[in-house]
UniProtKB/TrEMBL annotation:
Residues 15-98 form the GST N-terminal domain. This is Uncharacterized protein. It comes from Drosophila willistoni. GO terms for molecular function: glutathione transferase activity; maleylacetoacetate isomerase activity. GO terms for biological process: glutathione metabolic process; L-phenylalanine catabolic process; L-tyrosine catabolic process.
């Protein structure tokens, strides 16, 4: 299966991977997009982040992911956690449909945008943080950090974007951007100051890999919430 000269051919297993995922977890969503783009078939094991105080905290799942978060991916006989590390593993073992550009400067740009979103925005507005911030303040809190980060993303995109975040090829940066835009809408962030972000999000809306990964198309999406 693997055509990457650095990866032994027996490294990649034919056993279908299992993705521990939650329908509107943006981190699970990044990996779903990457798997779909690379056309890797996988099964989803839903982990409800809200049922009974969160299934991610149960003993059984803590064995899978000691960070008590989704996603986790069982693949090639290994259990991997952390969405960005997982995307890089997929890139290295399944080089088909690359998610990193060849050009080193473009690669750096992809990693920069990934980092802004995955370290500088999402962790500050995820469920565990918002629980600590409290119901009353959580919307303002999330808006603050998303706005701060989107200013930097928009600036990065002003020099890197073509059709997508970096040039005209879909990359890891796009896998991270689309779920973060969803979160921004969820917290009613005014997105008008970010026209490039909005344009790329719109561009990717109809892409089949992105569409299939959308929360509303997940097996654990509550039926009463078909549209986000
Ligand atoms: O249904 C819920 O409200 C629970 C959790 C989430 O949305 C996931 C997050 O914590 C946000 C995120 O992934 O960025």
């Amino acid at each position: 299966m693997s055509s990457n000269a650095n990866i032994p051919s027996n490294y990649v297993s034919d056993v279908q991977p299992i993705l521990y995922s939650y329908w509107r977890s943006s981190c699970s969503w990044r990996v779903r997009i990457a798997m779909n783009l690379k056309e890797i078939p996988y099964d989803i094991k839903p982990i409800s982040l809200i049922k009974s105080g969160g299934e991610q905290h149960c003993n059984e799942y803590r064995e899978v992911n000691p960070m008590e978060q989704v996603p986790a991916l069982q693949i090639d006989g290994h259990t991997l956690i952390e969405s960005v590390a997982i995307m890089h593993y997929l890139e290295e073992t399944r080089p088909q449909r690359p998610l990193l550009p060849q050009d080193v400067h473009k690669r750096a740009k992809v990693r920069e945008i990934v980092e802004i979103i995955c370290s500088g925005i999402q962790p500050l507005q995820n469920l565990i943080v918002l629980i600590h911030v409290g119901e009353e303040k959580k919307k303002e809190w999330a808006q603050h950090w998303i706005t701060r980060g989107f200013r930097a993303v928009e600036k990065a995109l002003s020099t890197s974007a073509g059709k997508y975040c970096v040039g005209d090829e879909i990359s890891m940066a796009d896998c991270c951007l689309v779920p973060q835009v969803f979160n921004a809408r969820r917290f009613h962030v005014d997105l008008r100051p970010y026209p490039i972000i909005l344009r790329i999000d719109r561009e990717l809306e109809s892409n089949p890999a992105f569409r299939a990964a959308h929360p509303s198309n997940q097996p654990d999406c509550p039926p009463e919430l078909p549209n986000k």
